[in-house]
Specification:
Its EC number is 2.2.1.2. It is found in: Cytoplasm. Pathway: Carbohydrate degradation; pentose phosphate pathway; D-glyceraldehyde 3-phosphate and beta-D-fructose 6-phosphate from D-ribose 5-phosphate and D-xylulose 5-phosphate (non-oxidative stage): step 2/3. This protein has a single domain, classed as Alpha-Beta Barrel (TIM Barrel). 53% of the residues lie in helices and 17% in strands. The protein contains eleven helices and eight strands. Strands 1-2-3-4-5-6-7-8 form an eight-stranded parallel beta barrel, surrounded by six helices. The longest helix is centred in the C-terminal third of the chain and has 17 residues. The structure holds erythose-4-phosphate. Erythose-4-phosphate (E4P) binds next to helix 7.
């Protein structure tokens, strides 16, 4: 499974990238706001740092304007995936940009039918938002499973990019179901390494080691 990191913070991306944990990056207008950076500048820096797809989101609402924005974002680097919302205009934009050879990530997906449309529009990635469904008491993981089944039934090549991941369990479940990619904030990716029994075991080993009076270095 591929790991994308969901942030526009260069330092956080670089730290995970150095470990080989970053297969791509996703950003959105809220993450650009949080970074305090200019979208074109920070996106270029991310593209230079990371080999895999870097999603940069359009902010227009009409297809004609979205297409123009998408082309400008795609010109930043070869590894840009233009992110478009799952609206009818977003789907039109997806078809045009895909036909031009650009990667497209269709975002803000909350239903299996929306995911079906994105696949038919040629999307490279579909981003179902797990956490935001859980927030309103629906089952985000069930949506990932439904999309997996539908895409496999018909052999769609659109990659399922499980998004709005808030917990380590979202990562486990996405992997179990067979999502192609997860995108998660750096803190969630780092939390995957944590286990209370690891901490407890390490404490015990350190205590016993101190009693030996030995040193390795
Ligand atoms: C995905 O591409 C989005 O940027 C992101 O996963 C949204 O997550 P949130 O619902 O935690 O804001």
């Amino acid at each position: 499974m591929k790991f994308f990191v969901d942030t526009a913070e260069i330092d956080a991306i670089a730290e995970l990238n150095d470990l080989g944990m970053v297969d791509g990056v996703t950003t959105n207008p809220s993450l650009i706001l949080k970074s305090g950076r200019d979208i074109l500048e920070v996106t270029k820096e991310i593209c230079d740092l990371v080999d895999g797809p870097v999603s940069a989101e359009v902010v227009a609402l009409k297809a004609e304007d979205m297409i123009a924005e998408g082309r400008k974002l795609a010109a930043i680097a070869d590894n840009i995936a233009v992110k478009v919302p799952l609206t009818w205009d977003g789907l039109k934009t997806c078809r045009v940009l895909t036909d031009e050879g650009h990667m497209v990530n269709v975002t803000l997906c909350f239903s299996a039918n929306q995911a079906l449309l994105a696949a038919k529009a040629g999307a490279t990635f579909i981003s179902p938002f797990i956490g935001r469904l859980d927030d309103i008491n629906l089952d985000g993981m069930e949506l990932i499973a439904d999309i997996r089944t539908i895409y496999d039934n018909y052999g769609y090549e659109t990659q399922i990019l499980a998004a709005s991941i808030r917990t380590v369990n979202h990562v486990t479940e996405s992997a179990r179901i067979g999502a192609d990619v997860i995108t998660a904030p750096p803190a969630v990716i780092k939390a995957l390494a944590s286990h209370p029994l690891t901490d407890k075991g390490l404490d015990a080993f350190m205590a016993d080691w101190a009693k030996t009076g030995q040193k390795i270095l």
